[in-house]
Each structure stands twice: as structure tokens, then as C-alpha cells.
Amino acid sequence: MRPICSAGMTKYRPGPVPARDTYIVPSDMTTASESQLASAVLMIRPARFESNPLTAASNAFQGKSDASPQEQHAAALKEFDALVAQLRTAEIEVVIFDDTLEPHTPDAIFPNNWISFHADGRVVLYPMEADNRRSERRMDVVEHLDADLGYQVREIVDLCAHERAGHYLEGTGSMVLDRVNRVAYACLSSRTQLDPLGDFAQRMDYDVIAFDAVDRNGVPIYHTNVLMNIGEELAVICEAAIPREDQRSAVLQRLSDSSHDVLSLSYDQLDAFAGNMLELRSTGGTRVIAMSQQAYDSLSDEQIQRLRRNGDVLTATIDNIEGSAGGSVRCMLAEIHLPRA
Asked: How many domains does the chain have?
């Protein structure tokens, strides 16, 4: 079953989003506290994985594989299963859904772009830029979590109506959430725009820190989660990719204000997906930092030591997924923060 843009949701009212230099959207709600780290993740096992031609124009990280679609898919399945095994060995709960052959959703392996789960029982659905990515949204996933796995879904917050105006916000790809301090960091691009950011801020009680970020060639970075990650104590960011000094200072100051230690990445490390890591918590309480082997190999000994002082490092080789689709480990994981009965 492929749903889900619910036209009957609360009418969208544009919020007080500045139109120029300082992109800060303050929240005006009070919401229950939330842990930064999840112990469970949703993953979608691909049915027809391949480099998506509808996303290539906005994602400079993709299309680096010369393999055929059939070869890309076969390799992606092996890489997917190996990552699942690594996560489960690290005592991270993995909830797997199989993608369907039809409709064809070549990027279904990246569920964090269309859905996010929150500790107050809310589930957020997001507006997607590419037509064939919108078909990734599946209500059966939400229903199974609620009806069969004991998670409590109390409300669906549907932002999909922004697609009609050509405005997009691709979940925790577009935003890196500091869930404890209620701050959403977002680098603006064709996939991450101010109107849905303001809508998210109002509905979900978040401040939004939006900024511009570019790769070494001056091309806008398509998703914030290839640029940075926020863990419980450690934040990882390629600050060189934020060209404007005032915006860079504002991001770093907000991280400092929230008592995060900052580990800086180079452009070479950004290109190797070192920014696309995710900090989780094992069911035994240990912090686990998940990333690709390529990302790990790009780090210096000193950076690795800092990561290991913060948690156990988990790596998986997903070279084909990274090269074909332009996303890495964090993109494959949608953290499940929902309460359980």
C-alpha cells in the first residue's frame, strides 16, 4: 500500500521565517523531552536499487559507479545485509521492511528522507523533490510499528502538501536534529527550503538554524546530513563547507551553547561521507557510532581516537551504495524514537 499525503491535516500557515540573511525560526511550543540517541532503527531492504536519474542533478555525490543497474542492485543487497548484521551485533534493534518492485523506488534504501519518529508518539512525513521518491512513503510501515511491534503512534504530522508549491524538506537528510535542545540544523538547497522548515518548527517545537553550504566546487550540498552529525556530546561538521563567516559562526556558537564538543572535517573527508555518521545507543546502554568504511578510512588517527572516546565505532563497507546513490550509512537509518507500550 502506497499512501500518504493527507489533505485533511491542519491547514498550513506560513510562519515568521526571515527572508534574508539570518535564518532562525524560533519555536513557541512546549514538548516532552527526548533522548538524542535511538536504540532502534528502521531500514528498507531494496527491491530495485540503482542510481536514481531524477536526483542526480541535485546530488553531486551520486553516479560515481559504472556498474549496470542489475550489478548495483546485487551489490546493494549484500552491503545492506552486512550493515544489518553489524548493527545487530552491536545490539542495535533493526526493523526491516522489504521494498516493493512496483512502483519503482530506486532510493527506497534511504527511509530517513520521508519519515521521522519522535518520543511524544508523533510521526512526521516529508515533502520530497523527486517524483519517484514520493512513492517511498508507506503507511503500512507506520501501521506495523504501531499494531504489531508495540510502538505508540499518536499523531501523523504530514508536511507533504508543500510538494504542491514546489517546496521540499527531506526529513533527517535535510535536517540534522539536536533532539535534546530542540534545534534543527539545515543547509538550504533545492531539497531543503524555508517554508516547510518553518512549518516543521511550528508543529514540532524546534528552533531552526538554516544556512548555506557548498562543496569544494561551490555547488550547494544537497542534504545537511552529509555535512554534519550531532551525537550526545560530540558534533561532527565540515565547517569549511559553510562559506559565510556569519553563518558558520552562528552554527558553531549554537553547538557550543548546547555543550557539544566539535570535531571538524576536511573537504576530502566530507567527500568520503565522514559527515554521514550516526550515533546510536545499544540496548545495553553503550554509545555506538555507525559509519561507512570509506568514511572511517578518511579519518586521522587523532579523529578516530576522539570518536572512540565517545563510543564504540561500527563500520560497514557500502562502496556501491555510496557511489551509485550518493548516500551513506546515516541515510539508510531512520531512528525510531517512538514510545513503547
From this structure: 1
